[in-house]
Amino acid sequence: AQSVTQLDSQVPVFEEAPVELRCNYSSSVSVYLFWYVQYPNQGLQLLLKYLSGSTLVKGINGFEAEFNKSQTSFHLRKPSVHISDTAEYFCAVSGRISTDKLIFGTGTRLQVFP
Amino acid sequence: DTEVTQTPKHLVMGMTNKKSLKCEQHMGHRAMYWYKQKAKKPPELMFVYSYEKLSINESVPSRFSPECPNSSLLNLHLHALQPEDSALYLCASSQDLGIRVQFFGPGTRLTVL
After folding, report:
1. From first to last of its 114 residues, what are the pLDDT tens digits of chain A?
2. Contact B108, B98 (CB under 8 A)
3. Which one of A23, A36, A102, A108 would you mutate to disrupt binding with B, by most B Cβ within 10 Å of its Cβ?
4. What residues of chain B lie within 8 A of the CB of A98, using their CB?
5. Is B17 on the interface with A (CB under 8 A)?
């Protein structure tokens, strides 16, 4: 079975500053990794995914994440945040068998201040 | 079309009512999912349909009854709900079970009085 931990429940940051949202996972098998964003009163939007290949993954809205197998991490980064990036961010993991479920972390609230 | 649509956007119902939530996608996806999300919590998987057949039921109470009439539609029938069932209900779809990229709809905000 897989699990995912998002250590930071809230991350406050000023506009135009860089940000990193941390995600660590646990699994005995190879995994797929995802970051989703949820704006207030909306559904989840896929930011980026790691399925295989290059460990540096670029997503939408200027976000990127790096898959680190030795540290079992998949941290999300953005070099310069905007007010509009204020949202809840969920890291998710799944195994590679078709019946494996998508397991979400508890979420990190990114609050960008002017 | 890369959207998953859900109706209604909001629903208020009493504990004796029967209502249905609807989800639709026209991406040709063959796997569809229902999730329940409580405030400030991650989504919790409820049901998975694959090729219009129920594949996973996460021990959801029988007052929630899913239905997949065709490959584009997914319904969730609600009956005799409890106030604690109030939540955001999210529908998602993926190309199939083996393709793990799920696309989510905007959700239905359900309030049970």
Report:
1. 889 999 999 999 999 999 999 999 998 888 999 999 999 888 999 999 999 889 999 999 999 999 999 999 999 999 999 999 999 999 999 988 877 889 999 999 999 999
2. no
3. A102
4. 96-98
5. no
